Amino acid sequence: MREEGRRERHAARAGSAFVVPLLFAVALALLAAVAAPVAVRADDGDGRPSPAPPATSSDDEKNDGAGDEAEAEAGASAADDDDDEDGRKKRADVPERPRRGVPGIGRPGRPRRPGAGSTRLQPGPDPGTFRARDGAIFAKVGGGEHPVGDDAGFAAERPRRTEAVGAFLIDRREVSRARYASFLAALRADREPHRRCHPGEPKGKSHVPDGWAEGDGEGDAAPLPVTNVDWFDAFAFAAWAGGRLPTDLEWEAAARGAAGRRHPWGEEPPDGSRAIFGRHRAGVAPVGSRISGATPEGVLDLAGNVWEWAAPASSAGAAAATATATGEGAGGEGGDGAAAPAVPARVAVRGGSWLSPADDLRAARRELRGPLDRHRTIGFRVARDVPEGDAPADAPDGPPPDERAPGADGSDPKDLDAGVGPGGR
After folding, report:
1. Second label for 406, Cα 20 to 30 Å away, from 74, 81, 90, 240?
2. What is the mean pLDDT of residues 29-53?
3. Cis peptide before 400 (omega within 30 of 0)
4. Is residue 415 included in any domain, yes or no?
5. Would residue 92 count as lying in a domain?
6. Containing domain of residue 176, as a range?
7. Distance in angstroms (rounded) separating the CA atoms of residues 371 and 234
8. Pair 131, 137: CB distance under 8 Å
9. What does the alpha-carbon distance between residue 77 and residue 391 come to, in Å, rounded to a whole number?
10. What whole-number distance in Å separates Cα of residue 137 and Cα of residue 408?
11. Is residue 277 part of a domain?
């Protein structure tokens, strides 16, 4: 009996040792089955469930997008290869990207490439006008006999006389800070930045205006005239832009006309609607903002706003006037078309400025300054020779004119001078 009891207890213990692990395994299997996701299957209509779509994560979407971009790049590369095989064939289905202009500087925020200056012109908005590659509008001034000088004026203006002046083109507006910024950007990118400079320019001279900071001119809300530039700066810009400085005689011929006007607009005295002058605190105004002061050819700001550099005039009368004013001999600046000195000792500024009294706005007004003088009241404009045949030269391939400059399309410019600070800054 005792033996049988012992055997039954041993068997019970052995059965328990087998059943417990089995129950544990079954429990684990049930838990795994409960935790597993249940796929929802749709019925296709034939009694058979269709497989559930695979889940898509955000990473999968990114990978799909990257794959699309890779395919697009591969397609573009293949297209380029095809174009190369066809000998630079241009794809007709892709229109050429339009070029948009900004103040003489090409596309907004980007300086134009070196050599942006060009002698090529196209027709301007009005008869007798021409448009340069940077958008500047030039007016034609007819040649002939022009009265210059003033017997009642300062020494540099005497005597009154008549001079023969050939036809020429002159910029309707003074050079703006934005246009000058384009010039500086081109110099920085040019391997030979001084190749267009005057031969007598001091070696290593900088063309950056006094007080000019990086980025100046590029973001101007209004086209203010560049100031604090000397004669050599103006000469270099004009050559880079495909033109030159107007001669002393040309400048006066443009301002005075063949009839010998007292002021660019006529005989009426200056006022605030015609010129910027006598403003001891306000400073310069945007170029071309006084349309009532225009000449018959539409040239603006020849009186007031900023004095303008002019090139020496190679005539006996001009040489005599300069010699009288400076107390020097005529030197190499003789008549009969003789060339001006390599380095002019004194050159003329014309037209008066925003600080000038009304008398300085006379068309005959003339001051002489050293070619390295810089001042916040001195700027300049560009002149050109009349194109051959008195017709525009080949049309340019550069950007369209500066849309921000008032009147660049031939319309009447607006008065934008409100809030402009002293010194054109």
Report:
1. 240
2. 49
3. no
4. no
5. no
6. 98-206+219-408
7. 10
8. yes
9. 46
10. 7
11. yes
